[in-house]
Amino acid sequence: MDKLFVIKIGGNIIDDEAGLTSFLKDFSSIKEKKILVHGGGKLATRLASQMGIEQQLIDGRRITDAETLKIVTMVYAGYINKNIVAQLQCLGCNAIGLTGADGNTITAHKRIKGEIDYGFAGDIDTVDISFISSLLKGSDLVFAPITHDKKGQLLNTNADTIAQELATAMSGHYEVVLIYGFEKAGVLMDAENDETVIPEIDPGYYIELKSARVISAGMIPKLDNAFSAINKGVKKVVIGKAGNLPLLIDGKSGTAITNSEQL
User: Fold this and answer.
1) Could you give the 3-state DSSP secondary structure of residue 175?
2) What residue spans define the domains of the chain?
3) Which has the closest alpha carbon to 180: 208, 212, 218?
4) Strand 146-148 vs strand 154-156: parallel, antiparallel, or unpaired?
5) Is the pLDDT of residue 262 over 50?
6) What are the backbone angles phi and psi of residue 139, rounded to the nearest 5°?
7) Upper half-sphere CA count for residue 71 (Cβ side, 13 Å)
8) Is pLDDT above 60 for 105?
9) Which residue would you say has higher pLDDT here, 128 or 218?
10) Could you give the 3-state DSSP secondary structure of residue 171?
11) pLDDT per residue over 143-157, tens digit each?
12) Residue 179 contacts residue 7 (beta carbons within 8 Å)
């Protein structure tokens, strides 16, 4: 079975021009098939602030009103996605930039949870495995976190979730490694100290860490997605610093996510 890397990066590395360039060099050097999923929340938040559009987050997830949807679509699917694709082409890495709406790749529905209105935020329904596999035959893929509901409505979808859903969907056809790259060295016991990386987390330890409030609200969705992926057939999940990509791939850095059966 061929190996497939699904790698997600967030706003910090995207905002760092030198850091992004270095990361993309490492990404382009991966010989196996690969998919890059990017966020870009900090740039979107900055633009929203400049335009006087108030932003709200609940448990690390953005509330997406109509004006915010326009901003994140322009930023994620436009500038960030195409800038990454252009840089990869410069590195000799033939890449295609996509959203979930392109090729009907990822469909979603508007999130409804209790009394919380998340606006135009989407939860994923389907991933078109055959279409993605056909594209991977000749190109690497770069996904922006925008999906659609098949009724003409774009939806802002958590990039960590998109990475997890892509990894899970493809795990029946590939040996999938899912890497969440962000600004920290891994999941930390002390959020201010990169030397306190937790090397491995299983479900029981995760519950302990949440109960002790070691893990922040922003990290919880990432870990929830990581556990969902590892429990649905993804071979390996690692969380760590995007700038350490080769070390994350080699298992020499970051936090490994395991399920009980792997212990």
Assistant:
1) strand
2) 3-262
3) 218
4) antiparallel
5) no
6) -150, 160
7) 23
8) yes
9) 128
10) coil
11) 999 999 999 999 999
12) yes
Per-residue pLDDT tens for 36-70?
A: 999 886 788 888 889 888 877 776 566 899 999 99
End-to-end CA distance of the chain: 24
| DSSP labels, 16-77 | -HHHHHHHHHHHHT--SEEEEEE--HHHHHHHHHHTT----EETTEE-B-HHHHHHHIIIII
Q: What is the mean pLDDT of residues 117-123?
A: 91
Q: What is the CATH number of domain 3-262?
A: 3.40.1160.10
Interatomic CA distance for residues 72 and 206, integer angstroms: 31
Cross-strand pairs, 61: 58
d(CA 84, CA 17): 11
Q: Give the pair of three-digit tokens for residue 51.
A: 């335009």
Tokens of 247: 């070390």
Q: How far apart are CA 160 and CA 10, in angstroms?
A: 9
Quickly state the pLDDT bin for 192 (edges 50, 70, 90).
confident
**Phi first, then psi: what are they for 197, rounded to 5°?**
-65, 135
